[in-house]
Amino acid sequence: MRTLVVFLAIPAALASAQSTQASAQNPQSQPPAASAPAAAEPTVEQTASPELVGQLVKELSITPGQAQGAAGTLFGVAKTKLNAAEFAKVAGAVPNMEGLLKAAPVGSSKQPALDLVAGQSDLGGLGAVAGAASTLSKLGLKPETIAKLAPTLVKAVESKGGAEVAALLQGALK
Questions:
Q1: Is the Cβ–Cβ distance between 119 and 78 less than 8 Å?
Q2: Nearest to residue 136, comparing CAs of 82, 60, 80?
Q3: Which residue pairs from 126-130 have beta carbons closer than 8 angstroms and sit at least 24 positions apart in sequence?
Q4: How crowded is the C-beta side of 17, counted as CA atoms within 13 Å?
Q5: Which of 4, 72, 137, 144 qualifies as a cystine partner to 104, CB 3.0-4.6 A?
Q6: Which pLDDT tens digit goes with each residue over 111-153?
Q7: What does the DSSP assignment read for 46-98?
Q8: Mean local confidence (pLDDT), 27-48
Q9: Burial letters for 95-110: b for 16+ Cβ neighbours within 10 Å, e otherwise?
Q10: For residues 172 and 77, is the Cβ–Cβ distance under 8 A?
């Protein structure tokens, strides 16, 4: 009789272990709280450069994610237009420049030819910002916000890096 109990207990224990293992491997059987959250909007403090992003959020009434991506996009444009020493001066005034550059929406480094032509022709007085407009619109920014973006970013950089650094950035975004 003892042997019968052992034979019945072992399969039951194995079945229970397999059930536990299967549920651990199957994420659908886990409660929703255990799954990874959707990409939530970062707070200003969670962005690559909280002080700069906070200034853009406040002055342009945009979200921290939009501000971070927009700053990264425009700094990416400036990086392509300035020589290495000039961009190093701008980057020196902006904490965590690399983080901002990485926050730019995908596609900002390889703009469509039409965007580049628009940027070079100073479309609407926006210069290089016009060339990045399609990338900035991916962030959900409205045209009137995009028009205010470069001057606001230059002002933010000037408060940290001074007039010379601001002039370098402004020249690159023309």
A1: no
A2: 60
A3: 126/150, 127/173, 127/174, 128/74, 128/77, 128/78, 128/81, 128/172, 128/173, 128/174, 129/74, 129/77, 129/173
A4: 6
A5: 72
A6: 433 343 334 333 444 566 777 888 898 899 999 999 999 999 9
A7: GSSSHHHHHHHHHHHT--HHHHHHHHHHHHHHHHHHS-HHHHHHHHHTSTTHH
A8: 59
A9: eebeebbebbbeebee
A10: yes
Distance in angstroms (rounded) separating the CA atoms of residues 63 and 69: 10
Tokens 């933010």 — which residue? 156
- Which of 97, 92, 101 is closest to 161 using CA atoms? 92
Rg for the chain, CA atoms, rounded: 26
Q: Are 129 and 74 in contact (CB under 8 A)?
A: yes
Helix-then-strand count for the chain, H and E: 9, 0
- Is it the case that residue 173 has pLDDT exceeding 60? yes
Three-point CA angle 111, 117, 122, nearest 5°: 115
pTM metric for this prediction: 0.67
Backbone angles phi, psi at 148, to 5 degrees: -90, -10
